[in-house]
Amino acid sequence: MRDRGVAAAVWIVFGVIAVVSSVLVWHRPDWDRLSDLHIYHGAVRHLHAGQPLYDFVAENGGPFTYPPFAALVLSPIGLLPEGVVQLCWLVLTCAAIAAIAVAAGRAVPPTRHPRPVVAAAIACALMISAPAQSNLRFGQVSVFIVLLALVDGMGLTPARYRGVLVGVAAAIKLTPLLFVLFFLVSGRWRDAGRAVATFVACGLVGAVVLPAESWTFWTGTFLNTSRIGNLASLGNQSLHGMLLRAGVAGETFPLLWAGLVLVVCGIALLRARQMALSGQWAHAAVLVGCATVAASPVSWTHHQIWPVLAAMLLIGAYGVARRVAGVALLVVMVLSLGALLSQVSMTPGLQFLFENSRALATITVCLAGVGGVTVATVAAGRRTPAARGWLRVAGAAVGAVAFFAVQPLPAGADPTFKAYSMADVHNPRYFFVCRSMAECAAYGAGAPITFGVTAEKTKVRVNGVTDARVARLEYQSAPGGAGRSIPLLEVYPGQWLFSFRSANLAHGRLTAYGPDGHPIAVYREELAVR
């Protein structure tokens, strides 16, 4: 009875969090409320009107990026008013999060904690995490894809239908196809066959009902990642996104990325196989899910539910090292360390660590496994197992932070860099230093270049004025990095304004060149934010 009361209380907490989160989403401005669901709704109506699916672009600039079968699955929402669809979607998202928690809670032995309590606790942790909140805010399908793959991966579906849910999930979003390999390496041959057959059948249904859209998608649209957004932005916490932010050279990028993906997925699948053979199907499925997040070219925040589940399984495991690793992973997935710790990241290396913490944490889970975390070994003598666990965790943490603390920002690694153009001149956020010809003349009097620096949460802006002595302006993010040209905009006769933003100016260099091509001024310390 006591366990039931505790479980009921925790589920009530989950309900409160779900309601408050949904209300906050509902009170966002119309243009920012469930923006991805707005794309789904508009694309389906566009299709119902006889227009090409992949020609659709919503008012917020977003296109439809999923396979044609996904449009068929979503087709009913086009028959309802968007407000009704939004309300239903919020409810279904919260229900899916609860269902994921119940499924994952089965992995914790009942002798350790009562399963109803564990499931409720996992649901609360999921709901407050950034991935779940992102699913709610944007109205995403990711949470439903995770639910389908998790239930099937754990083998909770009837034996004759196992693999079908993975096939359906992959037909909507391609990344669950990695579960087919998991089924193969773990000996679930029939499940792999059903998954592939279902995936192909769903694709054929899409081809029969939407032949033109299917041809467009499968002959090129699904490879056009530029439709999805800026893959170098901090929101893309995949291995691919992290390499882009590290400034890896274009000619070596594809081979390096493919090689690392093979290593990460190969190790994750081998560890998942070991877990599956020992009966830990939930741990294995979550590990494979984490591999899909790490390996996919695009892993936005709403895709990252799998690492949150990995954190909860680690917290529920035996051993100090595992629990501490689980808490650390949960903190990373709940908080945005890049924004929160930007003021205390004394070196660009630490900033890179904070900004890529979710990608690095997910990759670590794939390599170390869920249920046994690989950490640095520390001589512990005859200390107790708990003491040895704490020492191992402390040693690993100190080693990791020390490594990044001495790293410079990789040359060219500046995902937030943008130089503004004439179209942005009248935006006071970009050109704040002067607002008239007389004001600009007074601001830049006597110097070839005068500028101001202002810091924001995740970026630093430089805004300034040059005179006729400056023919070209160039910014270098880090030593060895490529110079970036800063446009000089003649807003007023004889006065040129410029504006750009960067992730970090700690190793930056701004150089002004004269008409003869020689530098006339170089600024380093002046870029520091005071």
Task: Give the SSE map.
Blueprint: H1 2-26, H2 35-48, H3 68-74, H4 82-105, H5 115-128, H6 130-138, H7 142-153, H8 164-172, H9 178-185, H10 189-209, H11 211-218, H12 239-245, H13 253-277, H14 281-295, H15 305-315, H16 320-334, H17 337-340, H18 348-355, H19 357-368, H20 385-405, E1 418-419, H21 437-443, E2 449-455, E3 460-466, E4 472-476, E5 483-486, E6 489-492, E7 495-502, E8 509-513, E9 519-523
Structure description:
The chain is of the alpha+beta class and 530 residues long. Among the domains are: 230-407, no CATH class; 418-527, Immunoglobulins (Immunoglobulin-like), CATH 2.60.40.10. 52% of the residues lie in helices and 9% in strands. It contains 21 helices and nine strands. It has helices at 2-26, 35-48, 68-74, 82-105, 115-128, 130-138, 142-153, 164-172, 178-185, 189-209, 211-218, 239-245, 253-277, 281-295, 305-315, 320-334, 337-340, 348-355, 357-368, 385-405, 437-443, and strands at residues 418-419, 449-455, 460-466, 472-476, 483-486, 489-492, 495-502, 509-513, 519-523. The strands form two sheets. Strands 1, 2, 3, 6 and 7 form a five-stranded antiparallel sheet that branches. A four-stranded antiparallel sheet has the order 5-4-8-9, with no helix packed on it. β6 and β7 form a beta hairpin. The longest helix is centred in the N-terminal third of the chain and has 25 residues, at 2-26. The chain is globular, with a radius of gyration of 26 Å. It starts with a helix and ends in a 7-residue tail after the last strand. Residues 372-383 and 403-409 have low confidence and may be disordered.
